[in-house]
Amino acid sequence: MLWRRPNRHRLEKRAAEILGKEAALFVPTGTMGNTIAVKLHTEPGQEVICDDRSHVLDWELAMTAWFSGLPWCAACIPRTAS
Question: What is the DSSP code string of the chain?
Fold first, then answer.
C-alpha cells in the first residue's frame, strides 16, 4: 500500500520542487526507474543502442527487453587511455 503513505507524497512533492518540475514519481529500485525510463523514451520495435559495458545492458537487459519489446545492440566503442 505504498501509494497511500503520506511520506511518499511529501517526498515526491519535494523532489519535484527541487528539480523545478511539475511532479515527481518515487520508484523503490533503480531497475524499476531504468525500466520506466526506457519504456517512456522508446516504442516497441525500436532498438536501444548502448555501450557494451553499460549497466542497463549488463543488469537490466531481460526486464527492459521484455517489458518494452525492444531489441538491444551493444556498440563496441574503442576507449582511449587517459
Answer: -GGG-HHHHHHHHHHHHHHT-S-----SSHHHHHHHHHHHH--TT--EEEETT-HHHHHHHHHHHHHHT--EEEE-------
